[in-house]
Design a protein that fits this description.
The complex is a heterodimer of chains A (about 375) and B (about 140). Helices cover about 15% and strands about 30% of the residues of chain A. Chain A is of the alpha+beta class and about 375 residues long. Chain B has about 140 residues and is α+β, with helices and mostly antiparallel strands. Chain B has 2 domains: about 80 residues, 2-Layer Sandwich (Alpha-Beta Plaits); about 55 residues, 2-Layer Sandwich (Alpha-Beta Plaits), CATH 3.30.70.20. Classes of the chains: A alpha+beta (about 375), B alpha+beta (about 140). At the A-B interface, strand 2, strand 12, strand 17, strand 22 and helix 8 of A face helix 3 of B.
């Protein structure tokens, strides 16, 4: 039985001798090769996703002005940024916006900063002995700010629901525009290419894992918010609905707008398309079996976004979704993704090239994620909670 | 025989002329009205699919133009900033006409403008605002 260590694989990467495949390639290989053969032949598998991830944002330090100000209300290009940190630190969330201009949000601020554009900064403070200034209006750019790094509390969902709408009216959701009477179905993960579907029990991904984040090297820093290990799994042990997530971090200044894109989802709000790639080591047969999983072996739940409580209407495979049609309630429903498989494939291929060129090494997690984690919902303890 | 879609814009005073009758009768063109918006006394717009010989369609369009109707091939009224597209699929989800598609092997967006019915659902559905369709 072949077992490989991170050190062995990194040795091979440094020597330019590592065998690296994308998750798509290893899924094909798995049709004919056994896990035992795969672990012998392949060292690393690259996985990737490129989708809208609302729980994303950037931490920025503006630097101090003279005289200095303790920023207690901050607007960047009119978009509100968080004011509850130290004097000139802020966090710009992807979904933040000026309510009068909902189509331009924090995601756009982040993209424009990355593109090197000049943005307008306005900040207000009450004025203190050490920070006497009460107002500043100036411009900032990637060059003028000290730090600008992405810190995304929840990215790379392990599986996600398919959205349909059984009602008679068209609805606008974060899963796109859903036509009435089950006339379309949308889905958002990259299936067999998706990072957390290739390591469903998180054997190799944990705190400290080095990843591809929007074109730069980034890191997994924590389990993502709403991390859930208790979701039902299919016969291969892969969750059939949204389960685990990642919190990630990376230097915005080193990223590429090719893999980070601001978006406005109609009548919903702004969000950020984030490109994530994760290299997964083929440590043993179990990992080889996990990594060779195909779209026809990964299932997800079809939820009715038009009805209260989003009831489940069925379960389908990614192969069905990719075929262009699924059957829901006996009806043939046209499918479309709302996340880019083309970009995900590009990321998996790029990361593969970085590994082959010895420019990227694997990291053994500093600490693994919790084995048991469940979610709580928000209870209303005040009976008179209405405004 | 060719099949081609055109957008017609009518001036305020053209509402009383049986223009489509003449296209059928005089130029042997099969017409299919895919979309119509008429604001009496102001303007009217039509998306027409014309089927006929190339020369008859040319003559039919010349006739419409002589009647002060603005005629333009559909594809000239659709702008799509392809170079900025991320192939996410949000537009495909709403395109019931099948003009916008994503499929194997490359999963890049394909836009067959000749299939467009100018429903304009893709315009707000695109998260990057890459579509612009001018019907009126």
């Amino acid at each position: 039985m072949t077992v490989k260590s991170y050190e062995e694989i990194n040795e091979k990467i440094r020597a330019g001798k590592a065998v690296v495949l994308t998750a798509g390639e290893v899924a094909e290989m798995g049709r004919t090769a056994s896990p035992e053969e795969i672990v012998k032949k392949v060292d690393v598998v690259t996985t990737a996703t490129f989708g809208a991830m609302c729980s994303s944002g950037a931490i920025i330090n503006f630097g101090h002005a003279d005289p200095p100000i303790r920023m207690e209300k901050i607007r960047i290009n009119g978009v509100p940024a968080y004011e509850g940190l130290a004097a000139v630190d802020t966090y710009v969330g992807a979904t933040a916006c000026n309510p009068d201009k909902p189509e331009y949000g924090g995601a756009h601020v982040i993209q424009e900063l990355l593109e090197g554009k000049t943005l307008e900064l306005e900040a207000w403070g009450k004025g203190t002995d050490c920070y006497p200034r009460k107002f500043i209006k100036t411009t900032i750019s990637k060059e003028t700010v000290n730090e600008a790094y992405l810190f995304n509390p929840r990215n790379a969902y392990q599986n996600y629901n398919v959205a349909v709408n059984s009602t008679k009216r068209l609805i606008h959701t974060y899963m796109g525009t859903l036509l009435p009477n089950l006339r379309n179905a949308t889905y958002s993960t990259s299936g067999e290419l998706s990072p957390l579907l290739n390591d469903p029990d998180m054997r190799t991904i944990g705190i400290g894992t080095r990843i591809f984040l929007c074109g730069a090297q980034g890191f997994v820093v924590w389990p993502g918010t709403q991390y859930n290990t208790a979701k039902p799994v299919n016969s291969l042990g892969v969750p059939v609905s949204n389960a685990r997530t990642l919190a990630v971090i990376g230097n915005l200044k080193e990223m590429s707008p090719e893999f980070l894109r601001a978006a406005y989802i109609d009548k919903y709000g702004t969000t950020l398309f984030v490109g994530i790639g994760i290299p997964i080591p083929v440590l043993d047969e179990d990992m080889a079996r996990r990594l060779s999983i195909r779209d026809d072996q990964i299932e997800t739940s079809v939820l009715d976004y038009g009805s209260p409580g989003t009831p489940k209407l069925g379960q389908v495979t990614y192969a069905m979704l990719r075929s262009g049609f699924i059957t829901v309630d006996g009806k043939k429903v046209r499918t479309a993704p709302v996340a880019s498989l083309a970009k995900a494939r590009e990321i998996a291929a790029l990361l593969k090239n970085w590994l082959l060129a010895g420019q990227f090494e694997l990291t053994r997690p500093v600490e693994m994620f919790p084995v048991h984690a469940t979610l709580q919902s928000l209870k209303e303890t005040e009976k008179e909670g209405k405004p | 025989m060719i099949i081609k879609r055109f957008i017609l814009n009518f001036p305020p005073d053209s509402g009383d002329k049986p223009l489509s009758y003449h296209l059928v009768k005089d130029y042997d063109i099969r017409i299919n009205i895919l979309k119509a918006e008429v604001f009496p006394g102001k303007r009217g717009s039509l998306l027409l699919e014309l089927q006929g010989t190339a020369s008859n369609i040319e003559k039919g369009i010349a006739y419409l133009t002589s009647q002060n109707v603005e005629v333009e091939p559909l594809e000239k009224r659709i702008r799509f900033q392809e170079e900025k597209c991320i192939d996410c699929g949000n537009c495909v989800a709403v395109c019931f006409a099948g003009a916008l598609t994503l499929s194997a092997p490359d999963w890049k967006l394909q836009f067959d403008k000749s299939q467009c019915v100018v429903c304009e659902l893709c315009v707000p559905a695109c998260p990057l605002h890459l579509f612009d369709i001018n019907f009126q």
